[in-house]
Write a structure and sequence with these properties.
Shape: globular
Structural class: alpha/beta
Strand order of the largest sheet: 2-3-1-4-5
Number of helices: 7
Helix content: 40-55%
Order of helices and strands: EHEHHEHEHHEH
Largest sheet: 5 strands, parallel
Number of strands: 5
Length: about 180
């Protein structure tokens, strides 16, 4: 199996399907013998960025740290799957420039769909004022302007989303 290092950066609202698509893509890539690592936003916050809050500055620091680790892995030939809300366009662009081999995957679902999928009840808590600076409620989400891949999870299946991503990786020489 020949592969080139690349970071696939899954961005979108909480509940849009970033982790779901990333999980399914991981299976397909591992079945093909790819070397890969997963950096999921929730897990990273428990380990690499513990202690950071949700201010804009802390969110940017969180994304920079994920980007730094992704860069190291990517330059060593690993496919990196990053699932992080990463709500701000400027910091995603900064990380893109640092990493180089970067594929932005916009996991796009309308807010009402994301809220209906919310198993943790975070949107309800944010709407009740119990959680401050919640992306999509009282903190902005800046949608990607030109993502390499857009997955409309309210309109397509997980398999269709994975197929789009795999097509992009193959057509751009990553696989």
């Amino acid at each position: 199996m020949t592969q080139r290092g690349v970071t696939l950066w899954f961005t979108g609202l909480s509940g849009a399907g970033k982790t779901t698509i990333s999980d399914a893509l991981e299976i397909v890539l591992r079945d093909r013998g790819c070397k890969l690592e997963r950096l999921d936003g929730d897990i990273v916050r428990e380990n690499l960025t513990k202690g950071l809050g949700f201010s804009k500055e802390d969110r940017d620091t969180n994304i920079r740290r994920i980007g730094f680790v992704s860069h190291l892995l990517t330059r060593n030939g690993v496919i990196v799957l990053v699932s992080a809300i990463s709500p701000y366009q400027a910091i995603r662009q900064e990380v893109r420039e640092t990493i180089g081999d970067f594929v932005e995957v916009y996991v796009n679902a309308p807010l009402n769909v994301c809220e209906s999928r919310d198993v943790k009840g975070l949107y309800a808590k944010a709407r009740a004022g119990e959680i401050k600076n919640f992306t999509g409620i009282d903190d902005p989400y800046e949608a990607p302007l030109n993502p390499e891949v857009e997955c409309r999870t309210d309109l397509e299946s997980v398999e269709e989303s994975v197929s789009k991503i795999m097509s992009h990786l193959e057509s751009h020489g990553y696989l």
